Amino acid sequence: MRRLGGGWRLLAQGVFVLLAVGTLCFVMAESLPGDVAYRVAAGRFGYDVVNTEIAQAVRAELGLDRPALVRWAEWLEQLAQGQFGRSMVLGDPVLDLVAYQLGHTLHLSLVAWSLAVALGLGLGFWTALWPGGVWSRLIERVNTVLRASPSFLLGVVLSTLFAVELGWFPVAGHEEAAHVFLPALTLALALCPGFTQVVRDAGRKVLGSDAFEFAQLKGLPLRTALWRHALPHVLLATLAYAAVQLVLLIEGMVVVETLFAWPGIGHALVHAVMARDVPMIQGTALTMALLFVLLHGLIDGLLHRLDPRLSDTR
Asked: Which parts pass through the membrane (predicted)?
């Protein structure tokens, strides 16, 4: 029954997110200054070609002269049928465009998340095992700088160093495997300080526990004691913190994908806003919000599966 209740709660959250985020995006897009038809026509044909006559034709084609409430009700009807409408600029179904972009976003997210967790575990355990050392102090200072640096600045520095100056990696694109390195590293460096701190604090707590000291008294090597007693507790704390980091990941995704021309959800959202492509704005924003709800629910369920004590507190 508890699992069933959790599933219904996740479904209710998803429905609420669909309605709230979609409506908010529609209202914000309608509130922006300028002529929507002119911006959409410019997205189709270019600003050099667009004139008043073309903008009027686009307005009539898309029904932009209808009341906003009517167009919002039409969007609700399409949403109830599992559709996001069609892109005003490209004319393709938004669902097809978002499905293509989502694959690239998930690819980048997985690589960035893996890098961030690997760096966080390594650096966090180092600072927990040797607190106050030269390298530990250096790690703390670098993490302070990274925590204060926005993703855009990190991306510019990394692309300038590794792509422009050294020429080791391409600046932008997605055709080759090497294209994912710089955007993934940018996201990973933004996430790494938080993971490092969580691993360090959890590691220090475990290292100072009676169970860990008893394991060493039994003659277990440090590596074995860490693997058996410290790592499970640290991974549980890291997984719990991962749910918090989802917001930072999604926020950074918009900036990083745009900076490196990575064809993901964030990149599409920025271009949709610039072109005032309302269905694409709604579709990309809804996908990102639903992705957050789904991942948060999966992490929460996994945490309760790994630590039954959390289920008892509900």
From this structure: 110-130, 151-171, 177-195, 234-260, 280-299
